[in-house]
Design brief:
Number of strands: 0
Protein name: DUF5313 domain-containing protein
Order of helices and strands: HHHHHH
Low-confidence stretches: none
Structural class: mainly alpha
InterPro entries: DUF5313
Keywords: Membrane, Transmembrane, Transmembrane helix
Distance between the termini: 36 Å
Largest sheet: none
Pfam families: DUF5313 (PF17240)
Strand content: under 5%
Radius of gyration: 20 Å
Shape: elongated
Number of helices: 6
Organism: Kibdelosporangium phytohabitans
Oligomer: single chain
Length: 134
């Protein structure tokens, strides 16, 4: 059985912090625990940041006619700061998102840890002759 994905409008709502209907509960857990969960988190943050940057660009460059280089540097620093703080709190943010969809606290982190440990055991069994030393 495959996991049911939200449509684009629902995904946008999810990206800005909204709660999806219960039928997407498994997808939310999948989204928070796949190996690319951090990339997905950054993309969700960019979906929030890009419209704000576009409005700021229009106001600063087009309406107020600031120098293009100053506007681009300012917007670049804004992206840097936004992603920096987003990455600092990424595990808490993703765990909160999963908890909002009905899973226990820190469940996504526990699942990611278990998946990583299973992968490590599989690797050690294959390539280390069962020796699980790190």
């Amino acid at each position: 059985m495959s996991v049911k994905r939200p449509n684009p409008a629902q995904w946008l709502w999810y990206a800005v912090g909204g709660k999806l209907p219960d039928r997407y509960r498994e997808w939310v857990l999948h989204d928070a625990t796949v190996p690319t969960w951090l990339i997905r988190h950054v993309l969700r943050r960019l979906v929030v940041i890009v419209p704000i940057l576009a409005v700021l660009f229009l106001v600063l460059r087009v309406w107020l006619q600031f120098d293009l280089m100053i506007v681009l540097i300012g917007l670049g620093l804004g992206v840097y700061a936004g992603l920096y703080y987003s990455l600092i709190f990424c595990t808490h943010s993703v765990d909160s998102r999963v908890t909002r969809h009905g899973y226990p606290d820190q469940y996504a982190s526990q699942v990611r840890k278990a998946l990583k440990e299973a992968e490590r055991e599989r690797y050690n069994a294959t390539w280390r002759n069962g020796d699980a030393t790190s």
